[in-house]
Amino acid sequence: MITLAVADLAIAMTATEPAWEAALAERFAAFIAQGPAAWQVEVRCEPTLTKADAPWVRHDGPVTEFRVAASTGGVDLARARAWVSAAAEAQAAPAVERVLTYILMQALPRRGNALLLHAAGIIYNNQSYVFAGASAAGKTTVARLAAGHAEVLCDENVVVQLSSMSPSPAQNEGSIPTLAPAGREAEKLAGTSSWHLISTPFWGHSTPPELVRRVNRRAPLQAIYLLAQAAEFRCTPLAPAEAVLALLTTEKVAVERPESAAAWLAVTERLIADVPIYRLEFRPTPELWEFLAEKREGRKSGGS
Amino acid sequence: MDPDLRIPRHSSRTASRLYSGEAVIISPAEGMVRMLNRVGSRIWELADGTRSVAEIAAVLAAEFTVETDHAQASVARFLADLEAKGLIVWS
Questions:
Q1: Is A303's pLDDT higher than 90?
Q2: Chain B CB within 8 Å of residue A253 CB
């Protein structure tokens, strides 16, 4: 059995094939943790599974089941258990990642202080930035443009979490993170809390392998950008409701049940009250970083 | 029953939140997200299962300085539309 911890959520995984478990442990090495797990996931080998002709996802109360590519599985939100089957080791990792991201998407908002976002996470000058967008909006492009300018935490899935203390960004490698969850009580005790960007090991499945670096990091969150590729750079602040709608375009799975939608909206309300959200039109050139630095300086000196 | 005495409330099949006075409503069953304008958002906020159509219209008439009859007709029409979309039910 291996246990992963992403954004304080510990998930234990057991694979029926020992070689798969070893491969998963290696893949997620930076996120391996000790201690009790909130979730249990069983990874099964089903050699007869073929690629699904028509992928499907269905919900029955707290249980969601799926058949996608050469994998099948289910997530039981009430029992905090999940299972996933793949035909061969090569398909196991993407299938497991599909289930783990689903768990994070559903479980983190219900804790009241965090969201999994389909976004690239970048650390630039010790501050972190989220670049969110639908498929092909430019997340991996931004990750590629970061080379030599900024550190990429992930190009596809990141967590934003309200935390009641702020460790150095290099903390937490290989252990269950020690940040206190920032519930109302924690806020009262700490007197303050702030949003952090937290990496996940779930990069895009079509990301060039040379870009992938599964690191376990977190850093104070400075801003969220909704990406749109364009001929010129432009950064436009979004009104709160607009920001929510823009985020929802990439987070439909997170709100597929009324209770998960309510939890997602509640966390988002706190997020947009604290963190500026912009629509970022950009050209895919390294001038992006210069443009953002100028914008940041402008904001510090009172500009928009 | 006088239709203006009916009491609307949000359907349990929806989740919603007001952001700076603008309502965002999610209907997971139909995979829809809606944002209401200021007036619609205020009606949505007031349709919380404690006020009748007439009471909601009275609040709107006062806040937006319009005739009560006009407000009542607008509120009734808007709530009927929300009901047709499955966003509200009647208590």
A1: no
A2: no
